[in-house]
From TrEMBL, chain A:
Its main location: membrane. It comes from Marinobacter zhanjiangensis. It comes from the Bacteria. The keyword Oxidoreductase does not apply. The chain crosses the membrane at residues 16-33, 40-58, 70-87, 99-118, 124-145, 176-194, 225-249, 261-286, 298-321, 341-365, 385-405. The keyword Transmembrane helix applies. CDD domains: TM_PBP1_LivM_like. Keywords: Cell membrane, Membrane, Transmembrane, Transmembrane helix. This is Branched-chain amino acid ABC transporter permease. The lineage of its organism: Bacteria, Pseudomonadati, Pseudomonadota, Gammaproteobacteria, Pseudomonadales. It is found in: Cell inner membrane. It is a multi-pass membrane protein.
UniProtKB/TrEMBL annotation, chain B:
PROSITE patterns: ABC_TRANSPORTER_2. SMART domains: AAA. Residues 7-248 form the ABC transporter domain. This is ABC transporter domain-containing protein. InterPro entries: AAA+_ATPase, ABC_AA/LPS_Transport, ABC_transporter-like_ATP-bd, BCA_ABC_TP_C, P-loop_NTPase. Keywords: ATP-binding, Nucleotide-binding, Transport.
Amino acid sequence: MATNTAAGGASNLLRFWPWVVIPLLALILPQIFDSRHGITLLSHMGIAIIFALSYNMLLGNTGLLSFGHAVYYGLGAYVAMHVLRMVNDAGGEGLPLELIPVVGAAAGLFFGVIFGSFSVRRAGVVFAMITLGLGALVHSSSLMFSDFFGGEAGLFGNRVAAPSLFGVDYGSNTNTYYLVVAWALIAAIFIYLLRKTPLGWMANAVRDNPERAQFVGYNPTIVRFIQFALAAMFAGLAGGLFVITDEIVNDESVGQIQSGIVLLGTYIGGIGYFIGPMVGAALVTVLESSLSSYTEAWVLYFGLLFISIVMFAPMGLVGIVHTQYLTWKAGGWKGNTGIRLYMLLAGLVGIFGAICVIELSYHYFRSWDPSAPFGLMGFTVNATTALPWLVSFGIAIIGFGLMLFHGKPMLARRISATSEGGNA
Amino acid sequence: MTKRNALELKAVKKNFGRAEIIRGVNLDVHEHERHVIIGPNGAGKSTLFNLISGRLKVSDGSIKLFDKNIHNMPAHKVNRMGLSRSFQVTNLFQNMTVMQNLRCSLLWSEGHKYAFWKSVMKQDRVTEHALALAEELNLSSQADTPASLLTYAEQRALEVGCTVASGAEVILLDEPTAGMSRTEANDAIQLIQRMTGKNTLVVVEHDLSVVFELADRISVLVYGEIIATGTPDEIRNNAAVQEAYLGTEVH
């Protein structure tokens, strides 16, 4: 019973602080990262957050694993782009820029209704395979029908040559960013509220037990269908915003990579929490754009992160924090905080070592001249000599070794000792 | 005294490939009666339930619920026409709490359908109804406990509650006391009698003491056929039943 109240209190906390903290962050961050690149990155984060939240309406809430969610993101973006171009061609007369994302949302909803009508009949593998097929289909169509999709070059628009509802000048990246924030907030509120409706509840019910849902009167297919169409609508909204920030859309936005990234981001953040997809999407966006400028191996790190989350923390990053928070609140850190921090530190050392090994390998196998000196963590090393390898492997082994074979048993002993002490 | 039939099965057959499991069942269940179906293992009791509740399609014959054909309808439509069921294996929304389970079971019958513009927690009638059900099920103190953490008997009780909550007039219970101790089974039977006072009840049961306590009428299913239907006394004294079932199962 004690754990129940703890869970209740914590979930209350988890429920409300994000609504204060995240908008505040969204307002503060552009003051800190005020470069052109920084603002663009933040805009992309906002878009990725809407997209991931919409994806989690399927994966987390309804138990539908989609491999083709970018279809609705991308088609929303293309349709929004066409409308933006129409506005451009009309000399900046017509739909205000602020409402262009609504066009994307409508397009997402439209295609969600069409494709959803036959793909949600079954959940599980059947659904996953259909979405994969649809993703491939739409992506290849985007290269075939160049009248609508603009071929490989894609389509361009101009956000400045469009009217604004409030007379805002969207020539400024920052103003565009605030438009993204406003839409992200609106989308997040709606997606959050949707979870509290009969549809949202029954989506969870259908995820847990479609058969029982039938015997309380609900058709699981209809529940999945409505949920799917609404998720597609929010994906389209994200696509429409992308058109505004980047003023270009090409086949990548409907592609499988885009579908994969939203899946990874949502899962890494944690599908069981409302803020999970937000955290995941923000992280993935940063990794994608920043890590790639530091290292060629960023895709590998990305994959390793995903695999370790799937294997060791299926509740995602937010899940890890939440679990630790619950333990701490229940007094589970008492007398062993030091050991926990020691394990964390050892783990970080291990990861540092592993990164060194990966960087060395990348340089050794990918470089024209493996013996050319290259910079590794501030040292200039030669990858054809043994020393950097030995040191890197050594750090990795010592770090992980200490965490798993010293810290972990010590923590287990300490916990069992305290719980026995508590019983005595 | 003429009674309306709640359920009417006519020459219902079901075969899986060449194996005939249900071989022409005729069965009338009167409104408001407690009808228990007994039979040895493999007689097809669960299959019969699956046919009635729309989980399986019949191969031949007809099933009527209050004079309307329901065979081969999907389960959710059968449910909306007034029939609900529980399962042999506990079948709840495991990740949800007791109250959440009850609320989900009430949503459709309270007319909320697939609404995505109103909050579940603000539907006072659903809340009242769910609280009353929790009280009746003796689960009030566990209202916020996830279903998966309840004891087995509590889970079965909750399942009966959810089955009743869906507003069905006809309720099928598949072995509601399976795997329970004597006292638990007695409690469960009392709970079922209390919760389903107004409903028509069809129960599959193994435990014969439960059967004779609960039943208004009993049907005996052997190898896919009903060999006898009658009051508990009639069944006790039926020679064919004794030979086919009671004689072999009860020593």
